Amino acid sequence: MIDNRRGWHEMLPYALLGYRTTVRTSVGATPYLLVYGTEAVIPAEVEISSLRIIQEAELGDAEWVRKRIDQLTLIDEKRMVAVCHGQLYRQRMIRAFHKKVRARIFEVGQLVLKRIFPHQDEYKGKFAPNWQGPYMVRKVLSGGALVLSEMDGTEWPKPINSDAVKRYYEVSVCISVISL
């Protein structure tokens, strides 16, 4: 392989060949097959002849052209199979996503904590708290955006994504005095 970063352009054709001849899980076919209608002949098949190469070598020119035209007429069918496979793959991914992800629904008046991200001014290092608040939800906008306000009622000028907040559960401390 290459030890330095200057020779990457020499390896690019090999990376592209690998990418174009590898079966994609999402469509169930290689990109090369979907473009040209047949699988690519990899260099190893030329050196060590495979059954496909031997069969094509024994064909006459007219017969090879007829076989290639037959392959090209079936390319639309192969592409439709890939589209159907892609749609089924997409549905499986959606089902897997919805199985793991819980919808987070916030309501007006609910108390939330806001996440402190490392790029914000409030960030004080890795040993400081990751959440600040509580804040009150003033409006719930479409797409999961929230308008928050401080506890004293001053509203924030910008909405915040609901991914950056979590529900705040108030802890009430009860001190009971036991008389002895």
Gap from first CA to last CA: 80 Å
How many independent structural domains? Answer: 2
- Structural class, by secondary structure, is alpha+beta
Evaluate the radius of gyration: 30 Å
How many strands in all? 5
Order of helices and strands: HHHHHHEEEEE
Low-confidence stretches: none
The level of helicity is 25-40%
Give the overall form: elongated
The largest β sheet comes out as: 5 strands, antiparallel
Q: What is the number of helical segments per DSSP (H or I, 4+ residues)? A: 6
Query: What topology, given as strand order, has the largest sheet?
Result: 4-3-2-1-5
Strand content bin: 5-15%
Mean pLDDT: 83
3D architecture notes:
- By secondary structure, the protein is an alpha+beta fold.
- The chain is built from 6 helices and 5 strands.
- The chain has a 5-stranded antiparallel β-sheet with strand order 4-3-2-1-5, with no helix packed on it.
- 4% of the residues are buried.
- The model has no long low-confidence stretch (mean pLDDT 83).
Brief summary of the model shown:
The chain has helices at about 10-20, 30-35, 45, 50-55, 60-75, 75-100, and strands spanning about 110-115, 130-140, 145-150, 160, 165. With about 180 residues, it is α+β, with helices and mostly antiparallel strands. A 5-stranded antiparallel β-sheet has the order 4-3-2-1-5, with no helix packed on it.
Spell out the key features of this protein:
180 residues, alpha+beta, SH3 type barrels, 2 domains, 5-stranded antiparallel β-sheet, 6 helices
